[in-house]
Each structure stands twice: as C-alpha cells, then as structure tokens.
Amino acid sequence: MVCTCQLFDSESNFSDTRSMGSLLQDRLDAITARTRALVQADRLAVSEQAISELFASGIEDRILPVGAPAPVIHLEDAASGRLVRSTDLLALGPLVVKFFRGRWDPYCVTELEAWRDLYPTLRERHALLVAISPQTRRQNDFAVEQHRLPFPVLSDPGAEIAAQYRLAHTVPLTARRYFRSILVNIPFANAGLTYDTAPDSAWRLPLPGLFLIRPQGPTGRIAYAAAFADPRVRPEPADVLALL
Fold first, then answer.
1. Which of 113, 93, 108 is CA-nearest to residue 243?
2. What domains are there in the chain, each with its CATH number?
3. What is the per-residue pLDDT across 26-52, written as a single tens digit (0 to 9) for each?
4. Which residues are bridge partners to 153 per DSSP?
C-alpha cells in the first residue's frame, strides 16, 4: 500500500476525527469474513492470486504522490449529465477525489456510504468530494440512487483519468473468469458489453484510490494519496478529514 500525506495539523484533530464512528476497515473486514464463509475455496484462490499479482506489479508504488500537480478531472456527472471540472470545484476549496471500481463491489459501496455519512463534516470543513468509476453513467446513477450519495459520481470511460493518477490496470484473464463465475459482469457495467465481445478497455479498473487536492497552482496539488492493490483494504476517511 502507498499512503503519502501531509502531517496532521494536531494530534487532537486526528483523535477527534477518528472518534466519528466505527472504522471503515472494520466494516470491510466483516464483508471479507462473510465472503470466505460463502464462496468456494477454489474460487477464492483465483481472486487471491489476482490480488497477489497486482501487488507484485508495483502499481501501489507508482500512484501520483503528495506534492504532484493534480491532473485535471473533466467528466460527466451521473445524476445531472453535466460535465464536472476539478478546476471549478477547487475554486471553492479543497477537493477529495475517490476512485472506486464499481457498484458491483460491496467494498466500494461500503466505502461510498462511509463518505456519504461523513459528507456533512466534509462540507463543514469547506471541502468537496467527487467519486469516479469507469462505469457507464447509467450504472453510476443507479449507485447514486440506491446509496443516496450526495456528491457527484463521475463516469471515467476506459479509466482514462484513473490512468493519469496512475491507478488504472486491466483485469487479467484468470480474474475475468473468476468474476464471470460469481456473476459480476464488469464489461456490461463499464461499457454495456457482454463478456465475449468486450475489448480489454472494458476490463480496465482503477485501484480504489483516495486523493486530497488543495487549491494550489493552475490545477491543484495533491496533499494526500493512498491506494491499495488489495480491494478489501481502503484508506480511512478520518485520515483525510484530519487534514482539513
């Protein structure tokens, strides 16, 4: 895992933020425990191998670091269909950018719900948040409605913006068969395609990444960056809130 961030302003700020509720990782670990109880061992082994190979690729170490200029985000919002520009949002204050894999991933939706519940606190600290996935606008809109998300959820076809943040990767063939065996149709979610007709671009996913961008310079500057090759592990929202 890579997690690079500015030092907390104060120890008390960190402690106060951590006390805002149960840790996100505790909820994610409960999902993992349920999955291990329900999914056959041979299928789990395929998933574990894919995670190990992604970690071994070194992708975690290559994400954009703290201090780097933030690539401009210019993507379509699921709810309104409008183009959202990160430069416009940064004119209003700091911006939290949450990359997620899709609404089919229970870890992702649990993380999005955690940010939903903390969104009033984020706004009190004069910051905004956008969530980005390679899903179609329709799939992202389903996520907004089902999980009552109050922040923009943006579609990133082919994970092109995720690639600029150095998070994008292509699901390997063995993992594609695993997803198919558990009825997760990533090509349909990302591009409205079937398993058999989908090009590699429909199998592009981001690492679940989290960035804090401060209004500095023409496009903003990264003040916090974290990403994991293991999708069962996510950055704690409290760690970002403590920087605001």
1. 93
2. 2-241 (3.40.30.10)
3. 999 999 999 889 888 888 898 899 999
4. 131
